[in-house]
Amino acid sequence: MSIADGSASGAPGPDELDARRVVQVVITRRGGEEWRGSGYRVSGDAVLTAAHVVRDAVSVTLRFLNEDGDVTELSGEPEPLWEDSEVDVAVLKISNDAGSSGLHAAEVPPVRFGLITQPVDCEALGFPKFKLRPDNASSEFNRIALYRDSHHAQGKTTPWADLRTGTLEISVGAPGPDPGGGSPWEGMSGAAVWSGGFLIGVVSAHHLTDGSGRLTASRVQRWYKRLAQAQIDQLGELIGLPARAAHLTRLPPPPPHPPPAEGDPAEALAGEVSKQWRKEEEQRRVHDPFPLPVRFRCTDRDVFDNWANIRQLPRGAAAKPLPLAGELDQIVDAYTFVPSGRLVVLGKAGAGKSILTLRFLVDWLDARTPGDRVPVIFGLGSWDPAATSLRDWMCAQLVRDHPFLAAPAARGGNLARVLVDTGKILPVLDGFDEIPSGLHGMALKALNQATTMPLLLTSRPDEYTEAVNGSEDSDVLTAAAVIELEGLQVDDYADYLIRASRTIREGGADHTVWDAVLARLREGPYTPGTANLAEVLTTPLMVSLARTIYSDAPRRYPEKLLHFPTPEALQDHLLAAFVPAVYQPAPNDDREAGSPRHRRHWTPQQAQHWLGYLAAHLEQLKTHDLAWWQLGTTLRRSTRMLVIGFLAGMALGVPTGIGNLPVDLVATEHGLGFAIVRGLLVWLLHGLVAGLVFGFVYEFAPRGAASKPSTLRIQIFGETRRNGAEIARRFMLGLVFGVPTAVVLVLMDRLIVGPLGFDDGLGGGLRGALLLPVELGIGAGTAFAIMAWLETPIDTTSVISASDLLRTNRKNVFVHMLVWLLVLGVPAGIATGLTPGQVGGFAPGPMLGLLAGLVFGIEGAFAGGLGYGLSFTAWGQWMALSRMWLPLTRRLPWAVIAFLDDAHDRGVLRKVGAVYQFRHARLEAHLAHAYRARQDSTRRGVHPVGKPGTMGEKTSVAMDTEIPDRR
Questions:
Q1: Residue in 204, 200, 210, 176 with CA at minimum distance from that of residue 188
Q2: For residue 71, what is the enclosing H or E element?
Q3: Running DSSP on this structure, what letter comes out for residue 73?
Q4: What is the pLDDT of residue 5?
Q5: How many Å apart are CA 928 and CA 794, to the nearest integer?
Q6: Containing structural domain, residue 840
Q7: Which segments of the chain have a pLDDT < 50?
Q8: Cβ atoms 151, 191 nearer than 8 A
Q9: Is there a single domain that holds both residue 525 and residue 562?
Q10: Of the candidates 836, 851, 883, which is a domain's last residue?
Q11: Number of domains in the chain
Q12: Model-level pTM?
């Protein structure tokens, strides 16, 4: 560290302490008393100093020095531009020509701010009392004038001293004692403290009990905990302070990492996670108009480990609690302040836990450097600790949400496993309370088995407390600190609701629909209804619902919220009114599809019904993850088997029946009537066989395996990744599948079609009956083997989003159909074309071979490829159940994906990796309950209000418009 020399060879930059910008602040107070301090010029006309230096100032003089010893005096405004006594910081304004100090405003680069995470070297330049010197060159009435020279204090500071007050303790060289018994450091207050070229604090005090070698400074990092966001924003405009603590530069800088290798899965994952969650933050309108001030503190509950374990202190060391308190944008600071890297966040329903995890992830990624852990949010609701270990479950979630991580790793396993096992993942485990009831204690034990794994865990307080204290063998989460979210107060959300509302101008005054309600909450009269509203609005969830219903739309008046008998009734009203409110068409809603993403115009009644079905579907699955490949899985197994069997039967029956027409007309002497009747008969019988085969295969297939989307893609050129054993296994599977099916088809033709008088003579006799099973078995085995040879896991060079899995699975099925067409069609065409003798009334040749090959190929493509896709792939079941059956039965719209995307755009759903979730579990539970109630009413013959077939219902939102605007 060195002070900039200000020479012409290189002007000081923002990362250097510039001596030309150091200021001695001379204050004249009321009564004529003079006071001196120090400061630093942070912009063209602003000086940063300590608030107590300029307290009660009548006049301010600012003295600048240069290396030649010349002094320039400028006057400052006695009233600071900004000050706060709690953090002891003030910003003064230079009132006259700042350029007269030798440094013009344009030459003052911005200051950069930092925070320390380890002991660091530091420096400060100021004008302390022990630098008082006689000015021999100046005398007045035979008295020697005195002046204070500058002192460059160099020393060290640490983040672990003064934890309770949150100040910096600076160890410097000790001056001699003050003869007057005071502090020799008087006048040093206000000096900027620097480390590594970043401003980390402002000198504020010298405690005599610390000795003369210790100074105390106001720590920049702690400003974010003590100041309101509006004050931080003001400092941002005046001195360039970042808007969030996460944007402060961490000191000392991390050791340089080698640049990430091309295709590094950790960096690819970090890029995907950052892109996804930043978009999600925008979608949730977290910063519109500004984030709610969610606060946290150390919990008072008896649920955390010994502080010595949390702080990882050596044996016998004294353990004191960590000062873990702050607001939402300080969660990364709080986490990094925990040496064990294990933090639990408790909060009641709707308290802001999910938003906190989102803020944590985004801020961590802002400060992340290559090689650091990648934070990934895992929703714990789908983890069964009795069946799957935490690491295995995390690997499966990573592959689900980021398919490229299914690629094999060099040392075995897949990339997801490598990232988890090598400590490249920072798990953000959201929703411990959503783990199935009765498994919380087991889950806590499983988390403790990964004692060294850093993590951030969220939970509702009661479920976590029960897991920790519920039985004799219960235990805390090892080495984990526990913080708890606090409820919102009126002042926390009042400005939020007002600024989110449109302004109403009447009589020259501006007001909003919330003014009267907020006045009641602040001033009274405090009725039971007012108390209920104050209690409900303590959670960010309910505040955001109230904002959506009453601030975002005209002619809705929140005075109604003051008249509910209980908090539960008020919450039910907000939950019930939310969906109709977001689906009400805007007055200026343009139905012209002029934009790339035109919003669909679903009615509130339709949306309420479809969202209710989705919520009930999740409740039946006992999960909060809404995955497109699982939408049909809650239908009865028999229903699914019948739908799959019917479509598979149609896939074989239709092309077989139609294919018989040209074959019988070309290769036989029968007429059109015979060909049509035989085609219908073959259609029915072959379709029945295929339907039964694929239906029973679906019934007895492993439950759930076929409904998961494939993480493989088709690669025709380049290196394949399948070994010979897998190709052989697939071939045998096709053989076992194809031979029995062919035998049944031959028996159908010989025992039913022939005796009915519709034998066209093309069966080939006994030889044909023996060859068809061999041909179909070998053909099916070959098709399966070719697909195994073509399939390769998605790699890091072709990263796709989770939403693209649907298209990837669809492409795989189409390629499967093409392979079946070629495998069955080409051999059949060659064999038919080269057959000796007459075929019916025609001689064999290329034309007949082409016709036969085309017919057999199309039949194979639909029967084998499409039938396989319907029964064994997520896309096939998605098409059969979610795109056909559920819309036909009015459970879901025809455009399912468009509806889900639209619900996400409207803020009803959120995206978490590859799946959707309702914006909150309480909204999901409310919609599921309302859906079941409507279904029960329908079954009893009591039809709810709304259009027939839509299961719509009126809500209380429409009633809000009847309350007149208060004048």
A1: 204
A2: strand 71-76
A3: E
A4: 43
A5: 37
A6: 637-883
A7: 1-2, 4-13, 141, 590-598, 705-706, 720, 795-802, 834, 838-841, 943-967
A8: no
A9: yes
A10: 883
A11: 5
A12: 0.68
